[in-house]
Write the structure tokens for this entry.
Amino acid sequence: SEIFRTDLYYRVQTHHIQLPPLRERLDDLPVLVNHFLAEAAGALNKKTPVPPKELLALLSSYSFPGNIRELQSMIFDAVSHHRSKMLSMDRFKNHIGEQTCSASESISIQADTDTIFSGFDQLPTLQEARKQLISEALNRSQENLAAAAQVLGLSKSGLNKVLLREKS
């Protein structure tokens, strides 16, 4: 029925696949863009449009909080609205919110030199920053949960819940 076989679940559970987010795999963008263009064109019974040269530069500057599904959705939307052989950048710019940015410019945010993030080329995600902050608090407190929790402004049980949630 709808219950997953327990024996199979435990066999599959031993195999962990670590797949980094799309923002950490920008080299995959050209292949993914071409794949999703062909997929969208096929689904919409259209000829596969040609992506503009600037598209990869624009997409590379975006963090993709929705990961690969967001890219797929953006491309499907652009293909569904395109009318010529060359794909328009407008749908992508609207989605990203950079309508005034020319596609040849790379989008960069200058970090203030006296912040804790000034050493980062790219800001960590909230989850990554939370992990690093908790790890540093535990390190500075010699793994004392109560002391680490106090430094972080949490109760010991609150920090314990966060740690348990991250393990699962």
In short: The chain has eight helices and no strands. Residues 9 and 138 are 34 Å apart (CA to CA).
